[in-house]
Design goal:
The structure is a homodimer. The first copy, chain A, has about 290 residues and is of the alpha/beta class. Chain A folds into 2 domains: about 170 residues, NAD(P)-binding Rossmann-like Domain (Rossmann fold), CATH 3.40.50; about 110 residues, 6-phosphogluconate dehydrogenase C-terminal fold, CATH 1.10.3660.10. Chain A is built from 13 helices and 8 strands. In chain A, strands 3-2-1-4-5-6-7-8 form an 8-stranded mixed sheet, with helices on both faces. Chains A and B meet through α8, α9, α10, α11 and α12 of A and α8, α9, α10, α11 and α12 of B.
Chain lengths: ~290, ~290
């Protein structure tokens, strides 16, 4: 039995790793898949490998016949599309869902689309080290959380169609307000990115005096610096569309770090150990919960 | 051809992952290996698996006949041994090397040992997710940096013997003053640990309001929180014997993070992108350098 998700004409806008993987995963549920991307080579690759049936660089032509449209572009490109002309291109009752990493700005803009468009915000919590259409993977979404955020254009039917799409991907739906989503990913995703970047800058600063830091850096630094190498354009979009939540999480982080430092410098080893212990326990509890699924 | 390292009687004090792996790696270079550990079960395991030839819980008996002694205990245990009676147990000309993660305090104490003991500080930059004698691995040190820090009891002969021991392990020696070592590992190892712990505490704080953070946390958080789960006793020893350098690196880190935050909040996207770009480049350069070896 399938999830009940079907599309007559599915259009995926943006054929990177995420968009390409969506097209692959939904292959059997859509009669026809159109891919929209600004890069001809990307479209050519997707056509050649049977990821899509039709290709165009023109947004209007790509979406005007679709009954399901997924926006899989970077956050600001999504905002520009939704606040631009896409509303006038889409047919009534088209399901419009995006997979941008921040949700408040996108969902707000979706609320201004013409009545009749079934718009809902989405954010799948998945990814890969490699990017681009060549890395597409039909299993990328399987078992992973997929957040859904309602907009002023989300009807009960919109919600059910989006849930069945998530089921077809094999993902696990989490429904929440956009504000709550952005606050949560500020803590678990955007704050870690800034910490990783600031750590690398700190080591780089030390490296100006003593190159040995780069020679001696090992596995701990490797893990902690990985996020600093993420795609810059993607991260810039994310940070600038979630500045308030990120600033809040930075304030909370500073508080926790200051506490650890104060206990270390004042040599209050008992309280320092207790705080480090609670961090250790929280991490181990999360890992067990994660593995238990 | 070997490295030229030989021992008539090698004693390894502390049979955890690091000590057990040392014994395994040096098996062919020593006529006899004695293991000293406070835990009978650990000694039993090491004997049964041929990692050592003799076992004792008594430090004096373990080291008094040795010509090479490696201290592979936690930092404070090493300091206690070196500042305690070990000097009176050791024979003259014994090579004494430790593998503690901070070096200033240990090397200072080594400087007070009786003249004639050939003492030098060491710190191999290696490890594993798993710990304990059961995880011992003869290849653990191969290709990894092994720092050597001179003490007041380091003679030219001490240095050469330690270098040949490192060669026998297949590790790569880096000679530097203890102070410089502690400053460098403060940046690449101890600071990252504190950041990881403070990040987990921040997410935990958010989790008190919204459990969704734990549901949605993915690969980025997994990597950034791994260090927070490290062995607490080991980390407490490290932090409390390297407080000055850690405080310095924390101050530098705060400066870098504040810079990123100021550019984000003031919406100076160009400078923000430039700074994030330099972090990304530094990380990628380090990875290339690491892989090029």
């Amino acid at each position: 039995m399938g999830s009940g998700f079907t599309a007559r004409h599915l259009t995926v806008v943006g054929l990177g790793l995420m968009g390409g993987s969506l097209a692959l995963a939904l292959r059997g549920t859509a009669e026809m898949i159109t891919g929209v991307d600004p890069h001809e080579e990307t479209l050519g690759y997707a056509l050649k490998h049977g990821i899509i049936d039709h290709a165009t660089t023109d947004l209007k032509r790509g979406v005007e016949e679709a009954d399901v449209v997924i926006l899989a572009a970077p956050v600001r490109a999504i905002i520009n599309m939704v606040s631009g002309r896409i509303g006038s291109y889409l047919r009534s009752n088209t399901l419009l869902i995006d997979i941008g990493s921040t949700k408040v700005d996108i969902c707000t803009q979706m609320g201004h689309l013409p009545i009749g468009i079934q718009a809902i915000g989405g954010h799948p919590m998945t990814g890969k080290e490699s990017s681009g259409i060549e890395s597409s993977d039909a299993g990328l979404y399987r078992g992973r959380p997929f957040v859904l955020c309602p907009t002023r254009r989300t009807t009960p039917a919109t919600r059910l169609r989006a849930l069945s799409l998530i089921e077809a991907l094999g993902a696990v739906p989490f429904e929440m307000e956009a504000q709550r989503h952005d606050q949560a990913v500020g803590a678990i995703s955007h704050l870690p990115y800034l910490l990783s970047a600031a750590l690398v800058l700190t080591v780089n600063y030390e490296g100006e005096t003593d190159d040995a830091v780069w020679e001696l850096a090992a596995g701990g630094f490797r893990d902690m610096s990985r996020l600093a190498a993420q795609d810059l354009n993607m991260m810039k979009d994310i940070l600038t569309t979630n500045t308030q939540a990120v600033a809040t999480q930075l304030a909370h982080f500073r508080m926790q770090l200051a506490m650890l430092e104060a206990l270390l410098i004042s040599k209050d080893e008992k309280k320092l150990a207790a705080l480090l212990h609670s961090a250790r326990e929280a991490r181990l509890t999360w890992m067990r919960r994660r593995e238990g699924k």
